[in-house]
Write a structure and sequence with these properties.
This protein has one helix at 3-20; strands spanning 26-39, 44-49, 54-56, 60-65, 71-76, 79-90, 97-114, 120-121, 124-125, 129-150, 157-174, 177-178, 184-189, 192-201, 205-217, 223-234, 239-247, 250-259, 263-275, 305-313, 317-323, 332-337, 340-347, 353-358, 362-370, 379-386, 391-398, 403-410. With 412 residues, the chain is mostly beta strands. It is elongated and about 105 Å long.
Amino acid sequence: MKFYRFLILSVLILCGFNAYSQSSERYFTGGANVGMFGWAPSPQTKISGNRHYNRTLNPVIGSVIDNNGRSHFSLLTNTTAGLTAGYIRRNGINKSYTGFFAEVQANRICYTFDPPFAFSVQGDTFGGWLQTDRYLKYGVGVEYSWYRGNTVSNDGEQFFYSRLGFSQTNFHRNFDRKIELGYVEDWRENGRGMTSRIVAYNPQSFMLSAEFGMRNFAFDRSRMLDFGVALHVPFQHTYTEEYEFYEGNVSVGKGQLKYLGGSLNFSVRYSFNYQLPDPKPKPEKPEKTDTTFLATTVDTTGMNLDVQGQMNSGQEEIEIVVWDKNEIDGDRITLIVNGEVVLSNYTLKRRKKVVKVKLKPGQNYVVMRAENLGTRPPNTAAVEVRTRDKRRNVTLVSTKEKSGALEITYNP
């Protein structure tokens, strides 16, 4: 499949998702990711003899000596680092997100092997065979996140997510050296040691990537943090290296190592989200407003109150914060504290609205009057009460027949 064909297919899939979605909540997102550790396959073909390499665990960090005797300290494990940008849209039916993205990543795959016997070169013991495949990967993909629940602190949301990407690899290097077909290294001394030669090399390859994990949104969805596992599967292996071991100038083992360039590793991504403006709604007929609830004071004795939370306060002046942390569907409320209107006919937004009020000794009631039911009834608002030493979060739900309320007991 050509790269541009996959790009067109991704756009068509996302257009279908967006046509199905009933939400106007759309975000441009951009961030960075890092990954480390994991697993990378490297099959071996034994051609002759009985002396061959054995695959072992990567040492993570260590000193490496090249064929010219130069030594340098290096990170010897699978790593990835990159930048990503894209678009996500919330589905109003089940709170899921669909989106597409473009990304650029610098990947490093490490392979470590133990030799079948010990030998020395230039006064140093040959401790192991270390090879890498460093490359740049750039591509596009689609993603889907499905709602799991609120975070432990109840100030954000958690999702499971999956990402599927199609990319191309380029600029392959072994440590700092460009990989070249026919490149030879000779690690023999006094007829004992090994030689290697690159016998096959694919400088470019298409790659499929899949990532699964957990996604955490901030309370206002301006940021998100992903923890996942990423699988990278190239269409072609990167290069094949043929080795041969010698003892007394006689070949005792010959084989080939194939470096696939694929890996399975852990990934962490931190992104910033910018909410795109809502499309202009169609003009609606103005609603009749019940002016009795827009006065400075309101008689709440005849209202059907539903106390949905309680708290104590030792502070007279407090802050009441209201916002819509779920679907932005045009909910309008009037906030009443002890019969006094402190916020009138207000349309809930993602941005928090702060109101300062004074309590009276004893019981106080914060009442949320529903001025409408939005596009997705009932009328729901996130409410946070702040004092000097505590914060209390509650979700108030109101209908035309019943008003949600928070009871606050003030003890001077």
